[in-house]
Amino acid sequence: MAIVTPVEVAPGARRRLAISSPVTGEPIGEIEVQNASDVRAALERARKAQPAWAAQSVGERVRYVQRALGLLIEKQDRIVEVVVRESGKPATEARMMEVFAACDSMTYWSKRAPALLRTERVPLHGLLRFTKKLEIAYRPLGVVGVISPWNGPVILSLDPTVQALLAGNAVLLKPSEVTPFSGRIVADLFREAGLPEGVLELLVGDGETGAALCEAGVDKISFTGSVATGRRVAVACAERLIPCTLELGGKDPMIVCADADLDAAAGGAIAGGFLNSGQFCCGTERVYVVEEVADRFIEKVVARTKALRQEASGEFDVGAMFWPRQLEIVARQVDEAIAGGATALVGGRRNPRLKGHFFEPTVLVGVRDDMALMREENFGPVLPIVRVRDLDEAIARANDTSYGLGANVWTRDARLAGELARRIDSGSVCINDLTMTYGVPEAPFGGRKQSGVGHVHGRDGLRGYTQALPIIRDRWGGRQAATHYPYGEAKDQGMKKLIRFLFGTPLGRWLS
Q1: 93 counts as catalytic
Q2: Does the active-site annotation cover 376?
């Protein structure tokens, strides 16, 4: 994430922010912060454009997404260049996380949205099946606000935007102010794809702009970011009685069983801990390994970590910390852990060789559950490993957190893996893989506890951008309603007999 610095402006002028590279500190560009008036104007444009957009079929909307997909493939080198410049992540990682994932998302929803948003006929139960018909139509909500974060600036802007657009909504997209040029890519792609004017409005700015978006009067907010900001978004949405989806932080545990493939598990720990320099919400932040294999597992993790290349340019594996403030948090947590008795087997400090915001890939042992490193989200390239007596202790310590986004379990025993997965209090669990549920759009992705509200992806994730409208038809043209009144003794006794038959006899219960 880039370095953001306020720019001096004339009195009464709009605020401006300068964006600099987290790798070199060199200037990247400036942005002008849009205010509440700008947000209201964008909302007005979106309101005007949305009915015509909603009137198009899902298949017609898909064509715009497919055109944007073609542009994304064509321009991928330029997109990777922008992301790397703002974030400092390796080019391969940027292509994998931002371009590949975006292509997969656009392709998946283009194929699945027409069926998932089609009006659905639902069979009725009991006597209703003889008198009524039910269908559920999925209508767009109107205008959706998308607030996206800095750690996946393209994919986490594009994915909710595509779902909301395909569902027939207009979108106000507000990317993070620390990766504004990466976030702008999404709006540029759809503009070049010919999306009707006003259907997707880009809002550039910081927390002021995001707060104005939550207060402007949109019909839903999709937010990805920190727990603290997520709480404020939730309050703003509650005050306006609008829905929100909150994808927040995590403190994902990894459990390594005695029978695990230790080479695979060590590779999974490295990928889960250091991908994106540890700056992704479902990164592995705590490892619990049973005592009998702990020494061998730790040895393999340390060897792999020492082999990682951390550089500012060329070919490398681990990049810079995107944001200076996050670097400070990581350094504080690690310093406090080491002062409290933990040992850094690898790393444990800012990289002294490199000029920018680099923290060395770090493996720690001897950590305690009461350390901030184990309680608070770290969001950096830090992998604490804890020895446990048995799997019961591993589960208890894995669940001892205020977060619950993802988790992963490593074992060759399929039955045991399923049992452990169901005991972990988490939004999702991966077996013999790092937590990669977000990359599986068929799966609902969301968190427990402080890790979020609602789901992205899956059938319900897409339909979360719609109103499920039940439409009930009487099979007999309203004759039953016409005979509703008057009440009387005969009607009451008839209802009493019907209740006894339907719910008090085997045949009646079968019918009902």
Answers
A1: no
A2: no
